[in-house]
Amino acid sequence: MIETEDLRKEFRAGRAGIVRRRSGRAVTTAVDGLTLAIPPGRVTGLLGLNGAGKTTTIKIIATLLRQTSGTVRVDGLDPLRDPNAVRRRINLIAGGERMVYARMTGRENLWYFGQLYDVPRGVLRPRIDELLALVGLDAAADTVVERYSRGMAQRLSIARGLINDPAYLLLDEPTLGLDAPIARDLRRVVARLAREGKGVLLTSHYLAEVEELCRHVYVIGDGRHLTEGSPAELTARTGCHRRVRVTVAGHSARVESAVAAFAGRLGARADVEVAENGDMTVSLSHPDEIAGPLTMAIVDAGGTLAGLEVAEPSLEDAILTLNDEAGLVTA
Ligand SMILES: Nc1ncnc2c1ncn2[C@@H]1O[C@H](COP(=O)(O)OP(=O)(O)OP(=O)(O)O)[C@@H](O)[C@H]1O
């Protein structure tokens, strides 16, 4: 289990050119009292807007940054006292960063990183083959990475992150900028690793990805814990409702005012968007079954239905609501 307790990280801006407060040096509190648990055999999510403190938290756990206060334990080990033992148990994959060497082949990269982790040669050789197969790069194993597509390089990064057979994998935006099918393949690999017993900490701006993979999610804002739970619990707790979207052919002021009156009677707010072709899309969230009465109101006002969609509340709805409630805005 990875556990953090009351973790706190302040950055002090000391370099020239950075505006200082009159009281002294400017301080940014990136992580402000986070207590997290990342058990084995599960994908745990860490969500927050830009600047919420996710990457800083991950870097502290990965021994790349030192906390200002609070503790981290990795299977009971303190990264400050036993960094090497902790590094053998964890690995980090950050989507936005190039973490493999372009001039080497995929296999050479894995060999190089395996040696950095002191993986015995007899273990490393078969492990490289297994990992190349796991991420679907066996055919490209001996091609230099500069000839890889972005998705292939990213998959190689995943294999690199597994080269020391870590018990815990820290994934910071692992599918950033990847095409949908490649991202989906990566998600399958991550789900499989968790099923096989690895503990995974995932940050991602793709909330559908978090919803699919994570059994437990921490939501943070301005470095602080906002809430936690399974995606379903978070959605239920924030009181998000099913959203009904009705598309009406052509724009009609009469339909629009009928929709506004309908929403007003429910004490809800209807969002109306008008597309370039003039079609109107009305969307409304409510706990009751409103698809029928809403479409009736539209038809009664002379509208012609062109589409109807009922979407269950998503983690994205919940996170938007939480951030609104906490008064947070994107950095
Ligand atoms: N090296 C640093 N020096 C000073 N401030 C920093 C440093 N690294 C991060 N910060 C600040 O700490 C806060 C948290 O940043 P962090 O990168 O951890 O957030 P994040 O949640 O990962 O954001 P994003 O989603 O944009 O990646 C931000 O206000 C950021 O500007």
TrEMBL record:
<dbReference type="InterPro" id="IPR003593">
    <property type="entry name" value="AAA+_ATPase"/>
</dbReference>
<comment type="similarity">
    <text>Belongs to the ABC transporter superfamily.</text>
</comment>
<dbReference type="InterPro" id="IPR003439">
    <property type="entry name" value="ABC_transporter-like_ATP-bd"/>
</dbReference>
<dbReference type="GO" id="GO:0005524">
    <property type="term" value="F:ATP binding"/>
</dbReference>
<feature type="domain" description="ABC transporter">
    <location>
        <begin position="2"/>
        <end position="247"/>
    </location>
</feature>
<keyword id="KW-0046">Antibiotic resistance</keyword>
<dbReference type="InterPro" id="IPR027417">
    <property type="entry name" value="P-loop_NTPase"/>
</dbReference>
<keyword id="KW-0813">Transport</keyword>
<protein>
    <submittedName>
        <fullName>ABC transporter ATP-binding protein</fullName>
    </submittedName>
</protein>
<dbReference type="Pfam" id="PF00005">
    <property type="entry name" value="ABC_tran"/>
</dbReference>
<keyword id="KW-0547">Nucleotide-binding</keyword>
<dbReference type="InterPro" id="IPR050763">
    <property type="entry name" value="ABC_transporter_ATP-binding"/>
</dbReference>
<keyword id="KW-0067">ATP-binding</keyword>
